[in-house]
Structure formats: structure tokens, C-alpha cells
């Protein structure tokens, strides 16, 4: 028996460390730790860590050292480490399992009743059945990390996949809704809620209950947030939804209209009372919310989320709609013998409007109506619609966050509802595009390569085309092979193949065949059908042809435009064009040596887009 259990003299084979400083009587001589040799030959290292705050018993952390040549030294090191942990209050003072920890946390935490109930469901389904019996301190991070991984694998934590998921736990006849189990994990956001429960329990145990001074799961990170992509209804769909709601019932139409213009949450809308509407100031106040408990379906009235009470300023039409709505409610209540006071709910199934609607029934009714309309949307998307319209209208993000009841000055709105801003940007782009002049028709890639080649194969094809147009490669002659093209223009054989294909698309190269070389196909000048010429015009036409015409000229270097200028010349006179080409090259290169064969001149009549000719000095 170790002297850690008694103040008597140590037994044989036992070494002890001295007791704590100070104290009176027997406590002065109580040893703080001991090393015992067990019958198996192992060494047991044990220290006294005080009384367990839960059970009241002595808490004695223990380490077993396997027998070996160096076991005594290892035992001394372990004893010193345990004593330091106790002195620095880094060793747990309580031996508890995770189930005891989270249940005590649920009992003592301060949170809304609905939050306690929802978290209790997560604890009952995912924490206690699978890790509840595990130690809250030993390998806690490893245990909880394994739980998160299993939650991502299957929300039922199944070990056998050959079972039937029944549509209800009640006695029933199975139908297609009762299907063979398929593993489907929890969302990352749900796992983050589980992490919030565990993290809060460990923090409370450390800060308030003082069970440990170091958080055993410190540094354990939950899965990242899943990016949400809310899709609000379009303005056309929103108008159709409200019109259909008013067609079905006045109260139903007003409910959806308020949800759409205020951006209020479902519980906030059903909690509206008559006193929350000020028809003189044209304001709708959001002060309370109605929540529905999962287990009992009980309705409870609670404070607004984030405790951010807010008011919604109404336009004249919306304010008048609510005035007329209450006039209709007063008339209906008067016929039933009731008088509606300021505490009457906006929306109720009772004649005196003393009880609110059930939030879940509102969601179900909205889903049935929109599905009947052929729309795939949810009730919360009306809140998205409100935010989208405000952002699109240019309202600053802080004001939008205030109307929605988001804290943090708009950071929550940007973090979780960035898609609204994206929607606004898309609308802005559409509005801008509607005001821009009509874009010109895009030039076909094949035609564009003739005048503005970009890729190397396009530049090679353009230079060969110039040779064909100039007659250097006459019509019907054998075309150069791809190897000859590659060698002549210093490009790869693949580039030469692509250049030949582009020439075929231009109709300047025949297809060729097995054992046959392709031929050059010169397009030749297109002669327009001559119109009848009256007598006396022949001399004027001849004089006009002899005069030089103003030309728009474009200088290309290896297929890329480097200069544009105007000049007067005869586009049919090769000598004039050659002089213009040499002068433009000389000015571009500032007199430096340059291969004039790398330059081309695109010729157009001034003010006309059509290309008259492409001139190259060959």
C-alpha cells in the first residue's frame, strides 16, 4: 500500500516526495507523490491532486512505467512532471465523461429556450450515444475529431448499411418513401453547431467550475462554413407570388407582402401585433418573435434575434394597405362580437386574433402555393429578395444590415449573403448594357486573320496569301509543301500545317489528295456587272482613273499593325505603293536595318472599310 494513502511510514519498495509547504497536524507530513514497485515488476507513479469537485473523493493521477533497465529514472521524470502539473493547475481536478459535461452545461447555460431545445436534440442524437462515455480530458481532441469525421460520413452513424429508413417511427405500411439506407453526412454548418456546444461546455468547466485550468480541446477547429448561394425570386416572380397570395386570402397576401417589404424573419412576421404599426408615422416596429418548439409544438414569445429591435419605414401605399387591412379585420371581428385591441395579432385563426399563426404552418402553406405555381423557392427567399432590391437600389450595406437585423455593422450580411451583392452587380451590368450603343458584329475568325493575324500560323498564311495575290505564286501552280513552308518562314511543321489549312479555308489552296500536291487557287479580281455608260462620260471616267485617290494605309510588321497613315496614290500602281511602303518602313525603324520583306501594306480607300489590296515587296 502506498504512503499516498496513509500518513504511516512508507512500505518497502516505496519512495515518496515531501508534502506541501505550510499546513498543520497530519497534513504537514502527507506525501504528495510516490513511486511503488508492483508485483508485476512495473513501477506505479502516483500523486495527490486534491479532492474531486464532483465526487469529493481524492483525485490521484497515476502513470505506470514498464519494467526495464531505466525504469527508475523514467519514474522519477514522470513523478516530477505530474507534480509540476498539479502545482501549475494544469492537471484535471475532476474525472468526468463527455455526457456529464454537456448535460451540466445544458442545465447551467444562459440561452433562449428554443436554443436549449435545439442543442438538446443534437446532444441526444450525436454526442451522448457515440462519445458520451468517453473521458472529457483523456484524448478529448482525438475523440471529438473522430465524431466530426463520422458525422460527415453518415448522419445516422450507421455500422450496417443493410437497413430500411422508414418514413415515420409510427406503425405504418411501407411505401416508396421507406427506402434502403444510404449514408448522407451532416452539413458542415450542423457540425459547427455541435462544436459550439462542446466548446461552450469545456470553456464553462474551465472558467466557472474550475475543473481544469487548460482547455483539453484548445486548438480543435470545426469544419469550415459552407458557402451559401441564396437565390431570391426575380421581380416578376415576386409580383406573381404576392398576387397569387392576395387572390387566395387577404390576410395571406398581407403576410407575404410584409415579409417581402420588411425583410423580417418568419417568427418576427407572425409575432406582429396591432400596436407594432404606427399609421401616423408610417412605421412598422419589429420587437418580438414567435418560436415553435420541436417536441411539443408549443408556441413561445421571445425577444428578437441578436436583441436588435428595429423599425421599418413604410411608403404611402404600403401604409395605406395596412390601414385598410385593419379596417377589414375590425369589421369581421365586430360581426363575430369581438373588439380588436392593440394586443391583437396581425395574423391569426381566432376571431379575436388572440393567438398567432404557427410558424411552421406558414412555411408549409408557402411551399404548397409556390409549388403549385411551378416555382422552386422558399419562404426565407423573400428576405433575400428584400436585401437584393435594397442593394440594387444603391442602399449602403450598413443600412441593409440594420433593416435585416444583422449585427457587426454589415459583416454578417457580407459574409453569409454575398450572393445578394453579386445579384445587384449583375443587375447593374444589365442596366449598363441596356444603355450602351449596339456593339458591332464580331468579325469571323477566318476573315479576321486576313487583315489582323495574331497567331504564328495566321501570319504565315497571310504572307503566302500576299504572294498569291501579287502573282508570285500563280494560279494552278504546285503549292509549297509544309516542310518548305516551315523552312521558308522558320516555323514548326505543325504551324505550317495550320497555315495550309487556313489557306484552304480562304479558297487559295486545293485539297490535294493521295500522292497529289495541292495547287494554288488564285481568287482573281471580281468584275462587277458594268452599268450602261452614257455618251460623254468616257473622257471623265478616264480622267478620274488617272488621278491619285486618298487612301487609308496600314503598315503591318510580321502580321501586326505598327502604323496607320493616309496618302494619295493609285492603288493599282505597284511603284507608288512600293515607295509608300519603303518610306513607312524607314520612318518606323528610324533608319535602322530592317527586312522589308517582313512588312506589308494594307490599302483601303479613305473612309471605306473594305480592303482594296495588301501590298508586299517581294
Describe this structure in words.
This protein is α+β, with helices and mostly antiparallel strands and 618 residues long. Among the domains are: 14-87, no CATH class; 235-433, hpI Integrase, Chain A (Orthogonal Bundle); 446-505, Winged helix-like DNA-binding domain superfamily/Winged helix DNA-binding domain (Arc Repressor Mutant, subunit A, Orthogonal Bundle); 544-616. The chain is built from 20 helices and 15 strands. It has a 4-stranded antiparallel beta sheet, with helices on one face. Strands 13-12-14-15 form a 4-stranded antiparallel beta sheet. The protein has a 3-stranded antiparallel beta sheet with strand order 7-8-11, with no helix packed on it. Helix 2 (98-108) packs across helix 5, helix 3 (113-131) crosses helix 4 (140-153) and helix 6 (235-248) runs antiparallel to helix 7. The longest helix is centred in the first third of the chain and has 20 residues, at 188-207. It is flat and about 110 Å long.
Amino acid at each position: 500500500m502506498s504512503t499516498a494513502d496513509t500518513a504511516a511510514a512508507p512500505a518497502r519498495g516505496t519512495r515518496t516526495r515531501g508534502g506541501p509547504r505550510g499546513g498543520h497536524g497530519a497534513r504537514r507530513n502527507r506525501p504528495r507523490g510516490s513511486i511503488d514497485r508492483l508485483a508485476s515488476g512495473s513501477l506505479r507513479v502516483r500523486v495527490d491532486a486534491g479532492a474531486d469537485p464532483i465526487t469529493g473523493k481524492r483525485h490521484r493521477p497515476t502513470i505506470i512505467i514498464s519494467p526495464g533497465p531505466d525504469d527508475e529514472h523514467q519514474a522519477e521524470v514522470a513523478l516530477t512532471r505530474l507534480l509540476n502539473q498539479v502545482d501549475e493547475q494544469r492537471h484535471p481536478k475532476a474525472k468526468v465523461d463527455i455526457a456529464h459535461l454537456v448535460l451540466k452545461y445544458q442545465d447551467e447555460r444562459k440561452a433562449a429556450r428554443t436554443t436549449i431545445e435545439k442543442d438538446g436534440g443534437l446532444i441526444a442524437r450525436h454526442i451522448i450515444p457515440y462519445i458520451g462515455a468517453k473521458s472529457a480530458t483523456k484524448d478529448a481532441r482525438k475523440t471529438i475529431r473522430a465524431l466530426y469525421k463520422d458525422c460527415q460520413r453518415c448522419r445516422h452513424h450507421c455500422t450496417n448499411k443493410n437497413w430500411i429508413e422508414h418514413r415515420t417511427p409510427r406503425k405504418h405500411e411501407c411505401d416508396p418513401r421507406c427506402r434502403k439506407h444510404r449514408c448522407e453526412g451532416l452539413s458542415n454548418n450542423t457540425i459547427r453547431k455541435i462544436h459550439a456546444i462542446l466548446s461552450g461546455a469545456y470553456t464553462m468547466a474551465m472558467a466557472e467550475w474550475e475543473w481544469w485550468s487548460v482547455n483539453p480541446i484548445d486548438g480543435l477547429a470545426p469544419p469550415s462554413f459552407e458557402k451559401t448561394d441564396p437565390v431570391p425570386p426575380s421581380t416578376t416572380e415576386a409580383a406573381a407570388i404576392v398576387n397569387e397570395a392576395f387572390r387566395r386570402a387577404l390576410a395571406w397576401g398581407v403576410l407575404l407582402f410584409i415579409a417581402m417589404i420588411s425583410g423580417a424573419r418568419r417568427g418576427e412576421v407572425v409575432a406582429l401585433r396591432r400596436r407594432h404599426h404606427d399609421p401616423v408615422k408610417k412605421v412598422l416596429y419589429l420587437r418580438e418573435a414567435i418560436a415553435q418548439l420541436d417536441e411539443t409544438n408549443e408556441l413561445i414569445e421571445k425577444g428578437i434575434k441578436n436583441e436588435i429591435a428595429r423599425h421599418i419605414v413604410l411608403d404611402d401605399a404600403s401604409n395605406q394597405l395596412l390601414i385598410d387591412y385593419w379596417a377589414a379585420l375590425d369589421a369581421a371581428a365586430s360581426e363575430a362580437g369581438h373588439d380588436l385591441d392593440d394586443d391583437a395579432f396581425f395574423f391569426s385563426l381566432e376571431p379575436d386574433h388572440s393567438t398567432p399563426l404557427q410558424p411552421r404552418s406558414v412555411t408549409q402553406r408557402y411551399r404548397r402555393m409556390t409549388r403549385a405555381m411551378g416555382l422552386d423557392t422558399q419562404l426565407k427567399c423573400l428576405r433575400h429578395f428584400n436585401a437584393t432590391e435594397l442593394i440594387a437600389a444603391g442602399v449602403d450595406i450598413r443600412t441593409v444590415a440594420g433593416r435585416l437585423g444583422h449585427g457587426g455593422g454589415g459583416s454578417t450580411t457580407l459574409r453569409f449573403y454575398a450572393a445578394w451583392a453579386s445579384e445587384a452587380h449583375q443587375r447593374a451590368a444589365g442596366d449598363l448594357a441596356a444603355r450602351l450603343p449596339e456593339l458591332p458584329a464580331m468579325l469571323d475568325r477566318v476573315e479576321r486573320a486576313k487583315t489582323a493575324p495574331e497567331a504564328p500560323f495566321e501570319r504565315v498564311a497571310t504572307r503566302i496569301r500576299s504572294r498569291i495575290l501579287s502573282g508570285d505564286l500563280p494560279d494552278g501552280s504546285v503549292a509549297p509543301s509544309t516542310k518548305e513552308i516551315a523552312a521558308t518562314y522558320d516555323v514548326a511543321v505543325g504551324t505550317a500545317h495550320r497555315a495550309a489549312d487556313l489557306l484552304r479555308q480562304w479558297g487559295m489552296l486545293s485539297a490535294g489528295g493521295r500522292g497529289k500536291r495541292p495547287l494554288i487557287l488564285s481568287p482573281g479580281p471580281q468584275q462587277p456587272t458594268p452599268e450602261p455608260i452614257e455618251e460623254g462620260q468616257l473622257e471623265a471616267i478616264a480622267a478620274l482613273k488617272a488621278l491619285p485617290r486618298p487612301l487609308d494605309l496600314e503598315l503591318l510588321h510580321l502580321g501586326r499593325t505598327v502604323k496607320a497613315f493616309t496618302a494619295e496614290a493609285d492603288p493599282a500602281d505597284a511603284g507608288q505603293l512600293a515607295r509608300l511602303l519603303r518610306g513607312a518602313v524607314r520612318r518606323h525603324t528610324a533608319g535602322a536595318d530592317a527586312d522589308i520583306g517582313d512588312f506589308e501594306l494594307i490599302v483601303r480607300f479613305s473612309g471605306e472599310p473594305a480592303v482594296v489590296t495588301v501590298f508586299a515587296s517581294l
